[in-house]
Amino acid sequence: MKPLGFTAFALTALLACSGRNDSRAPDTAFAALQQRGESAMGVNQYTSQHVFEPLADGGRIVLQRKENDSVGEAAIRAHMRAISTSFRNGDFAVPGFVHATTTVPGTAVMKRLKADISYTPRDLPNGAEVVISTRNPEAVSAIHEFLAFQRMDHRAGMH
Fold this sequence. Notes:
Distance between the termini: 56 Å
Helix content: 40-55%
Strand order of the largest sheet: 1-2-4-3
C-alpha cells in the first residue's frame, strides 16, 4: 500500500475536520506575508505593529516599531512617504506584492477616484502613519474595505 501524501493545506483541513488543532504547526501563509512585508517595508514585521483604522472621512494606516530603533523608524517613515505618493498616483502594487494578490479589495475604486482622495504621511513616535481622507462616500467605502482587508490579513487592530 502506497503512503498517503498530504499537502500542508490538506493536513490542516483534516485536523480541522477532526476537531484537533495543533497550535505548534507553523502558519506558513502568515509567515510568507510577514516576509514579503519586511521586504517591502524594510522592517521586521514581528517586531513592528500595524494599525488599520477606519475614520468617518477615510482612515489611517499606522506602522510603528515595538521598541526604540532609529534605523527601523527611519525605514518606516520613508516607506510611509513612498506609499503615500504611490497611492496618490493610483499605484497599489506594494499591497498587492505584500498580500500576494493582484486584487486588493477597495483599490480598484480608490484608483478610479484617486483625484478625490488625499494621502498624508505623518511621523509618529517609533514610526509613521498615512492619513487617508476624502469627501466622496464611494471612496470612503472603498478605503474602509481596503483597511478591513489589511487589518484581517496582517492580524492587526485599531486604536
